[in-house]
Backbone:
């Protein structure tokens, strides 16, 4: 079982890779429920391509132990692992951010 860390700086690189890979895989799986949205996940980078040509990129930044997020709506953001969740500076979870923005763009 994966331990919950209070802050991302508390875990090792190996633990970071495991936690970040789980999050990226989870996001990829949830995006597959959207029609005509294409994803690719490789080497810690999740690319999301929408039918209207817009795209998102989420990638892990191992030295900083962060997930970096690029969006056509909100621009670049950094997500830290805090209390078992990947959150940005506004305490919004990465999954909520991404899924909400995809919904806005595909309507």
Residues:
């Amino acid at each position: 079982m994966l331990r919950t860390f209070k802050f991302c700086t508390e875990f090792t690189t190996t633990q970071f890779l495991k936690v970040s890979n789980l999050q990226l895989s989870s996001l990829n799986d949830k995006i597959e429920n959207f029609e005509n949205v294409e994803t690719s996940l490789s080497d810690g980078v999740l690319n999301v391509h929408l039918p209207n040509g817009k795209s998102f990129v989420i990638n892990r930044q191992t030295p900083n132990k962060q997930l970096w997020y690029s969006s056509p709506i909100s621009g670049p953001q950094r997500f830290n692992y805090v209390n078992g969740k990947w959150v940005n500076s506004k305490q919004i979870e990465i999954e909520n951010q991404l899924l909400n923005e995809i919904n806005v763009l595909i309507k």
About this structure: Residues 13-31 form the longest helix (19 residues). The CA atoms of residues 59 and 65 lie 11 Å apart.
